[in-house]
Structure formats: structure tokens, C-alpha cells
Automatic annotation (TrEMBL):
Family note: Belongs to the NifU family.
The protein's name: FeS assembly scaffold apoprotein IscU
Entry-linked SUPFAM superfamilies: SufE/NifU
GO MF terms, alphabetically ordered: iron ion binding; iron-sulfur cluster binding
NIF system FeS cluster assembly NifU N-terminal domain ranges (all copies): 10-129
Native organism: Streptohalobacillus salinus
Amino acid sequence: MSFNNLDTLYRQVIMDHYKNPRNKGTLADDAITLEMNNPTCGDRIQLHFIIEDDTVIDAKFEGEGCSISLASASMMTQAVKGKQVNEALEMAQYFSQMMLGQEPETDDLELGDIQALQGVQKFPARIKCATLAWKAMEKAIDKKNE
């Protein structure tokens, strides 16, 4: 597949997650909830997680912002559901490295649609949009472990 076709496909995946977000909504009051924002562009994400026995049982988000920010939150919640906490954190580390243009090792990570965001690294001002939900997830897990 040519680069232009791949780029078009990735844009379509991002727009699909933006227009049809997965896991949008809230969870019960006992869920871990964390809100973060990106004051540079106005993105705001509120994440809700249920973690039991070191496994992400459920993940949802609410928020407003650009297509990259909201698509990334949709992809992240979809990717981490059912994963062990250490796997979710490994995915977050991989994602951060990918946004910095590094080529991290994936081992056995199931990345799915997340790969569609790799083109964001070409636009430094948009990296914070893409990483907002991932950083919030890391903080939510830290909050759970306190």
C-alpha cells in the first residue's frame, strides 16, 4: 500500500473514532475518575476506570476537544479494556515513544487502531492532543495505587 493510501486510511480511522467514539460515557460512582486538560488547545478529557484484581475491567471517557484528542481517547479506552494494568501502562509508554518519533519495541502489544495516530508525530503542536488521554490513564492508575 502506498504512503498516500495508508495516510488516507489512517485519517479515516481517526475520523471514525471521532465521529463514532467507543466507550463514551461515565461509569458508576465507585470508578476511578480523573480529568485532565490541554490548555494550549482547549482539549478536556474525563476518564473513568474500573480496575479489579490488577485488570482494567471497564474504561469510558467524556470530553471535548479536537478530533485527534477525542479519537485517541476512544482508541485508548478500547485498547486497555480487559488488559492487565502493567499492559495498559506498557501501551501508554509505547504510545508516548511513538509520538516522539521513536521506534519502540511492541513485543506482543495489540495496538489495533492506535497505529493510525502515528502520523501525528509530524505535527508537534498536536502531540499533546494525542497523548492527553494516555497521560490521564497513567495518572488514574497512579491514583488507584495510592
